[in-house]
Amino acid sequence: MKSVPLRGLIVVPFVVLTLIAGITLYLVSTITIANVANSVGIQYIKEVEDRIYGHVRHFTAPLSSIVDINRNAFSYRPELLDSLTPLASRLYEQAMPYPHMTFISVATTDGRYLSSTRNPFKTDHHSVAANYVNKTLTMEGFEYDPVRHIGDKIEKDPSFSYDPRTRPFYQDAVQAQGMVWSKIHLYYGFPTLGIGLSGPIYDQQGKLLGVTATSVALTELDDFLESIALVDNAYIFLAERNGALIATSSKDELYTIANGITTRVSLVTHPDKVFQMASKQLESGAHRLEVDGENFLYHVRSISLGYGETWLIGILIPSSHHESVLAEHNQAALFITLMLFACIALVGSLIAWYICKPIQRLNQAANDQNLESIQKLPQPLSGISEINSLSQGLHLMADNLADIMQNLDKKVAQRTSHLEDENENLLECSITDELTNLHNRRGLNQAFERTFKYAQQQNKSITFVLCDIDHFKGVNDKFGHSAGDLALVEVAKILKSHLRSTQDIVARYGGEEFALVFVDTDLNHVIARMNKIRQDFVAKPVFDNQHITMSFGITYIEDASSTSQQMLIDVTDAKLYRAKNSGRDKIVS
């Protein structure tokens, strides 16, 4: 081994420890600052997220409130549905406070329909739609009249056949027997998505009277997300659980129309890679994404609208927004680290000089290979008490060193031999069953694992047997546990006598249960051996002229690589269970 100067041995650890301490300080500082910066990013996201969450809840809450109010009103006063016309004013007044409430409607079981309607882009234009005024089941548009409720017909609005009982909002509510959200859809004639909530109306006896519903245009949510002031290159989206987009902070299209077919844009199909990557992680919580070399802090939060409907808020901000906080603090941490390194290195050098001088004299005396050199060292040798103690100890050690060296090798050899013997005894005890001298469960596991690997590597067959003494509890109860122990010992002898000592395995699996393992042995041969074992039990009592029987479960695998140890044990255990339950003293293979 190459020797090193004592001064270096003292100074170098100082330098290394200083370096480690400095790097640790720097890393801790960096991590702490990174965590703080990350917390700033999360806090920013959560503030934006809370605004969106509150706005969406406030935006959708009137739908359930209005449907619930109307359901209760018509349930307790079903006569209101006898003539729907007066209800136009009720529905009109309910819609007035909510500019984006496009429809508030009621449909009866006889097919009559009345709705307060509003253009989602002309929120001041309010009208009434009904399908019973001039012709049954024919939808027409009317001006709202506060006196007559339903005013003049709007001639420019088309008339068409309309039976609400065939519409999804009606059928879904009746089927659900409660409040239900419609699928988000494109409003007919308007470039915006919408969603509705409907609920069935029952009288106090539980008879269906009809369905009341509300619908709202989602363009307001799109406008709201666009209005939020974000950091550069940040993204916000509202989406359904399947990733279909409801609104985004950008002005991208939320649907496409081709050949008259409307297709919703989802996160997966969005042209922006950031949204595509976001689609891969829609679990609530904080995530990190990398898109074209740019890292994003990504947070997802679910919004429950009730009645089984859940939306997702997704916010992505570039990591550069909050990681820029690191720059100045990292420079300060690096400067402090360098100063600390220099100071400790200087102190280490001074200490090394003070310590090294007397130790060098000790070293010279020891290298002289002369006990007199050690004895001539001045006392005290140094102002350091530990070095003086070392010098005195060298004087005392010199006298005893020869005798110690002569006896040391012999004592070490004796102790090593003793320890090896003890280790072998402990290992043998740990894998051997004390009563039967067979492998115990641990010994079986070790031997079985080696045998199983051998069978797999050599493409050999393997057979696993579990056997159980029938009615063994009765033996213990009738003759006592000592007799039961004698029976277990005798069973172990019989089982072992029918095995190939170098190839097969027998072990006490637990209690009165034993396990056997055969490699490269034909199944019929194994079954024949088990039958011979059964014959031995018939011919020979296990104690005091008492005979026993055993039940056997056998599993044979042609190719050991096609299964696992645990599967082999589980299948065999099930077969043993069948043997026990089908009368005992049987072999199930």
Automatic annotation (TrEMBL):
Domain of life: Bacteria
Pfam families (UniProt xref): GGDEF (PF00990), MCP-like_PDC_1 (PF22673)
GO MF annotations in UniProt: diguanylate cyclase activity
InterPro entries assigned to the protein according to its UniProt record, in alphabetical order: Diguanylate_Cyclase, GGDEF_dom, Nucleotide_cyclase, Rev_trsase/Diguanyl_cyclase
EC number: 2.7.7.65
Recorded catalytic activity of this chain's protein: 2 GTP = 3',3'-c-di-GMP + 2 diphosphate
UniProt KW keywords: Membrane, Transmembrane, Transmembrane helix
UniProt keyword annotation of Transmembrane present: yes
Sequence intervals crossing the membrane: 6-28, 332-355
Cofactor(s) of this protein: Mg(2+)
Residue ranges occupied by any GGDEF domain in the UniProt entry: 460-589
Enzyme class: transferase
Keyword Membrane on entry: yes
NCBIfam families assigned: GGDEF
PANTHER family named among the record's database cross-references: DIGUANYLATE CYCLASE DGCM-RELATED (PTHR45138:SF9), REGULATORY COMPONENTS OF SENSORY TRANSDUCTION SYSTEM (PTHR45138)
The name this protein goes by in its record: diguanylate cyclase
Organism: Moritella yayanosii
